[in-house]
């Protein structure tokens, strides 16, 4: 039998690759597998580590208090309360004397009391992105970045959503929003921290509540995300099909989980803008790195436009805003650039840095400064 020519082998390899890719795409129309591709919650990245022992990630003994939260629909969320290093130093001996590991009642821990009883305490509510747990990758270093600018005052509480890590339940858009609200309600009611002393930090845009969020490497919505996203930075989802708009629109009909961040953010701003002058204000910061190979920084460009467009009834076109940005943009050289848009009830800031990839950026000083600025303007 004659051996296939090099051309035939190439053709068969190409056809095989196309078949495998189309098979992969067809599997994504199944809701369960679609959820796995979006959330990657089964990929914990902490398989051989115990998330009830935060010292494994370089934290001091009892600097982090692991605890659980109960959601209204019966799920149990695993959480970390991270003390700022300066505050830890002041109470080090008392903290060292406490039992370590997950606490049965967070209200009985010294760390919680230092948060609740300090009228000047500040709190970051940290909502991580897809894949992993609250101990994965660059998340622990980013917790340290939260309090870097004020090491005596800024506490951080991070959670694993339902279905992530040791939290119970199954992931869903509605469920994750319930988890975010559960943490916010805990912060205000149990820890007794008023909204003016709370900052929401999200990576990506998983949580829009009634407080001004800070967003790092966010996405516009799942439909645009699938057209640009590469799983682990390597495996394209629908990017190859983005060149065929009718086919892409057809496949979007099968997307169950929408995460319309652009709509949620616009609704949040529009709602606050309509409140009486003496009521709530917002301060939103969107940060993205140009070298982010997971979620292109152009997502932040579009999110910024949707946010600014919602600040007034007359709105603004994308091209009009781009022209305005050209005139007001602050160039930071190798540090990138930023623009800031003030409105009647708040401010919207977009900062694009040149370096930081998708996750490293969370631990950078640009994030520490954004957190401090949000508290100062609260």
Automatic annotation (TrEMBL):
PANTHER family cross-referenced by the UniProt entry: ALPHA/BETA HYDROLASE DOMAIN-CONTAINING PROTEIN (PTHR12277), PROTEIN ABHD13 (PTHR12277:SF81)
Origin organism lineage: Eukaryota, Fungi, Dikarya, Ascomycota, Pezizomycotina
InterPro entries reported in the protein's UniProt record: AB_hydrolase_fold
Keywords assigned: Membrane, Transmembrane, Transmembrane helix
Domain of life: Eukaryota
SUPFAM superfamilies for this protein: alpha/beta-Hydrolases (SSF53474)
Gene3D superfamilies per the UniProt record, alphabetical: alpha/beta hydrolase
Residue ranges of the TM segments: 12-33
Name of this chain's protein: AB hydrolase-1 domain-containing protein
């Amino acid at each position: 039998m004659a051996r296939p020519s090099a051309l035939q082998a190439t053709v068969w390899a190409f056809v095989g690759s196309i078949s495998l890719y189309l098979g992969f795409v067809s599997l994504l129309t199944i809701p369960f597998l679609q959820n796995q591709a979006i959330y990657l919650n089964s990929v914990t990245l902490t398989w051989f580590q115990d998330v009830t022992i935060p010292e494994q990630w370089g934290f001091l003994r009892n600097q982090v208090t692991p605890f659980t939260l109960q959601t209204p629909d019966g799920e149990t969320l695993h959480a970390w309360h991270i003390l700022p290093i300066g505050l830890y130093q002041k109470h080090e001996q008392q903290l060292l004397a406490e039992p370590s590991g997950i606490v049965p009642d967070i209200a009985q821990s010294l760390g919680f009391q230092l948060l609740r009883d300090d009228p000047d305490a500040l709190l970051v509510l940290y909502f991580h992105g897809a894949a992993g747990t609250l101990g994965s990758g660059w998340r622990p270093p980013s917790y340290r970045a939260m309090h870097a600018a004020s090491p005596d005052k800024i506490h951080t509480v991070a959670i694993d959503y339902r279905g992530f890590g040791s939290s119970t339940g199954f992931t869903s858009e509605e469920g994750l929003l319930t988890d975010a609200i559960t943490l916010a309600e805990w912060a205000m009611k149990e820890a007794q921290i008023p909204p003016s002393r709370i900052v929401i930090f999200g990576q990506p845009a998983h949580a829009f509540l009634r407080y001004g969020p800070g967003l790092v490497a966010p996405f516009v919505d799942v439909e645009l995300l699938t057209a640009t996203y590469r799983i682990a930075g390597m495996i394209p989802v629908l990017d190859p099909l983005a060149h065929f708009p009718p086919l892409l629109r057809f496949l979007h009909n099968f997307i169950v989980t929408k995460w319309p961040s652009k709509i949620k953010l616009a609704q949040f701003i529009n709602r606050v803008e309509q409140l009486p002058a003496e009521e709530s204000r917002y301060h939103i910061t969107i940060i993205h790195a140009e070298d982010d190979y997971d979620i292109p920084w152009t997502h932040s460009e579009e999110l910024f436009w949707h946010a600014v467009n919602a600040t007034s009834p007359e709105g603004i076109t994308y091209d009009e805003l781009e022209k305005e940005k050209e005139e007001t943009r602050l160039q930071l050289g190798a540090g990138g650039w930023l623009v800031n848009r003030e409105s009647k009830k708040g401010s919207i800031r977009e900062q694009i840095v040149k370096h930081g990839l998708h996750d490293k950026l969370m631990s950078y000083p640009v994030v520490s400064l954004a957190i401090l600025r949000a508290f100062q303007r609260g």
